[in-house]
Design goal:
Strand content: under 5%
Low-confidence stretches: none
Order of helices and strands: HHHHHH
Mean pLDDT: 88
Largest sheet: none
Radius of gyration: 19 Å
Shape: elongated
Number of helices: 6
Number of domains: 1
Number of strands: 0
């Protein structure tokens, strides 16, 4: 079961890092994807699409780091800082995603006048933060457990 979880986390991380390549390699087909997310993305240039795809790597990279670190933590639960790295990445992810969405929105609407960009806070954002805090707690508990065992020996 652990190998399946690790494989899915690794596959998810690779997928997150590969997804923006679509916007770089074929901006015209990726434009439809952007229009679903940004209402004013009509008439964007290929350069704007490519820039938005590159910006997306920031948030996807943070989430992929969390996936890769969690995968390694499953394999090596005593590995120093793996759960901590994953936890911090998950806590940061919603904030990085907000920055990426605003930055992409500004990029994609630079050719349009009088546009607005909104920031959405949701339960999904809270999930990443809470799960990240849980991983930090697991890392701390594991460290304290190891320290108490070393002192008892």
């Amino acid at each position: 079961m652990c190998n399946v979880a690790r494989f899915l986390l690794l596959l998810g991380g690779v997928g997150l890092l590969a997804y923006p390549m679509w916007g770089l390699l074929d901006p015209s087909s990726y434009t439809a994807e952007l229009r679903d997310h940004y209402a004013f993305a009509e008439g964007v240039s290929s350069a704007q699409v490519r820039t938005s795809a590159m910006i997306l790597w920031l948030s996807n990279g943070v989430l992929a780091l969390a996936f890769f670190s969690t995968s390694q933590y499953i394999k090596y639960p005593t590995g120093p800082g793996l759960a901590k790295t994953a936890g911090i990445a998950l806590i940061l992810y919603p904030f990085v995603r907000i920055v990426v969405e605003v930055w992409s929105g500004v990029n994609l609407t630079s050719h349009v006048e009088d546009t607005s960009i909104s920031i959405e806070l949701s339960a999904e954002n809270a999930f990443y933060i809470i799960y990240g805090m849980a991983l930090l707690g697991m890392d701390r508990a594991w460290s304290e457990f190891n320290e108490s065992n070393k002192m008892a020996s």
